[in-house]
Amino acid sequence: MAIDIYSTHTLLMAVEQLTPPTTFLRDRYFPTNEATDVFSTDDVLIEYRDGDRKVAPFVAPRKGGVTMLRQGSYMERYTPPRIAPRRVLTLDDLKKRGFGEALFTQMTPEQRQLTMVLKDISELDAMITRREEVMAAETMLKNGCVMKHIADDHTKGDDMEIRFYSESSNPSTYTPTTKWSTTGAKIIDDIHAMIQMLTKNGLAATDLIVAPDVAAIMLNDETILKLLDIRNYNIGMVEPIALPNGVARIMRLNVYGRIIDVFCYDEQYENEDGDLTPFIPAGNVVLTAPNAGRTLRGAVSQVEQADGELHTYTGARVPKYIADANGNTRTITLTACPLLVPNQKNPWVSAKVTA
């Protein structure tokens, strides 16, 4: 029996074989647990709770024990946004020499078709990954995310917002008394204050993610330069760390006894207007720890061309292949339904530190 290489199940296996693009924010701070974070329904369950710093009490021998109540959690049902970029393949595309092919190639249009479909899937996957990275950055900076849903008109859309706090304003922001770009800035004290905002609630604070302009300010700050004095440098210590493109660990600071890794993230993406935009805007910093959140993935439902019936698939990426005999075109769509959420309430602190 011949295998339909363009069926959704076959393409799903091809998608799973692709090497996923690495991203810094999503992979380090919002990993996906395949057992608990991938749902077989359109809706997902968002659950997070406050940090816990309770201490066990002393009890008299005759008392036996003291009942400690379990900590409550926040749970909501939410429908993740649908991300679905697509590519159209025409007869003209199949007749042209593809990118990377030999100048005088022997590849037929039929053979080129499969190559172009797999290449399109890889590029669409990278586009979705960048969107997830944008969502990760916005969630950490704003403690929530606004998702613009586009319909027929690409210039308009409905804004869908999700917030991970119940207060009137974001409680996970810090405002330094003196901007770091001005004279008299107390960068170490500000970082320490941000650390305390997390640790007082039993949350970890190990990573400080900064924009490139902030990294330059920190590397030229007199107080920090004294901390990084070359006489205190342990030249025999090698501590490599694997990081995606666009990320550099510029220093490791001892902030009143707490070791903080400072990461400069200068990666950019192209927004809807065609402008290059940094994931971490200029002048911004975020303090958090790895695995502060997770990426939930809702199921993808779509009508298949093969039988005209509705089918539901689970996974990070779901392909859909449609052939139009009248228009002599074939369309590949790659769909994802991600939602990035915190594991605990307010597990990060953001700040605008420059004027």
Please name the defining characteristics of this protein.
single chain, 355 residues, alpha+beta, six-stranded mixed β-sheet, three-stranded antiparallel β-sheet, 7 helices, 28% strand
What is the gyration radius calculated from CA atoms?
A: 25 Å
The stretches of 5 or more residues where confidence is low (pLDDT under 50) are 233-238
State the shape.
globular
Q: How many individual helices?
A: 7
Structural class of the secondary structure composition?
alpha+beta
Number of strand elements: 19
The helix-strand sequence is HHEEEHHEEEHEHHEEEEEEEEEEEE
Helix content: 10-25%
Residue fraction in strands: 25-35%
| Separation of the first and last Cα atoms | 67 Å
Mean pLDDT over all positions? 82
Biggest beta sheet attributes: 6 strands, mixed
